[in-house]
Amino acid sequence: MDYSNCCFLSNMDFPIVFLLLVVGGHTAEMLNLLAVLQKERFKPRYYVAAATDNMSLQKARVLEDSLVDEGVKSAFEGVDEVGPAHFVQIYRSREVGQSYITSIGTTLIAIVHALWLMVKMRPQVILCNGPGTCIPLCAIAFLFKVLGIRWSFIFYVESIARVRKLSLSGLLLYKLHMADQLFVQWPQLKMKYPRANYVGCLM
User: How far is CA 116 from CA 4, 101, 110, 119, 188, in A?
Assistant: First the structure.
């Protein structure tokens, strides 16, 4: 598939945060997107997943291990190294089935944790595609932007599974103007959300 329409593929040297997803299908989408990026331009890479989600980070480690193997081979060919990768877990605002009352406390904890991570990593790009895990990080990045501290650009790629309407995460980022660019994979979503960018199916 052609990912060239995703205009965030530019030369950047600051830390990049890739937010991996809570469910396997969405994680596969993110890894497929990552596979076509020029890794030597995106380093170091930070993979962020929910504290209860070990599967996504495991898949990311497998991908990075393959990049390391390729890097060893490329070193003999004079190709730049792909750079280091880091794996981070973040508290979820709300677990599946958790009541909205108790989620108030967990959301506050998640926001504080997200603030600490953002100050520590200072990513130039946040790339995400669906997990509620991304909302605290994106909210902190947006708050910094409002305060005149522009560390991060937020790029949101809506899942291919969303055909008629955005996910809750996508809708929040769209309605609150948090995302610098929001990409959709179905033309009817572009018609419903005109500020979104239609890039066709990426899977």
Answer: 33, 24, 10, 5, 38
What global pTM score does this model have? 0.81
For residue 90, what is the DSSP state?
A: E
CA distance 171 to 87: 27
Tokens of 178: 């948090």
The encoded tokens of residue 145 equal 């932007």
Long-range contacts formed by 50-53: CB under 8 A, 24+ apart: 50/22, 50/89, 50/90, 50/91, 50/92, 50/131, 50/133, 51/89, 51/90, 51/91, 51/92, 52/92, 52/95, 53/20, 53/21, 53/22, 53/89, 53/133
Count how many Cα atoms sit within 13 Å of the Cα of residue 151 in the half-sphere of its side chain.
22
Of 55, 57, 61, 75, which Cα lies nearest the Cα of 19?
57
Query: Is 88 strand, coil or helix?
Result: strand
What is the per-residue pLDDT across 89-137, written as a single tens digit (0 to 9) for each?
Answer: 888 777 767 777 877 888 888 889 989 988 888 888 888 887 778 888 8
Dihedral pair phi/psi, residue 41, rounded to 5°: -90, -15
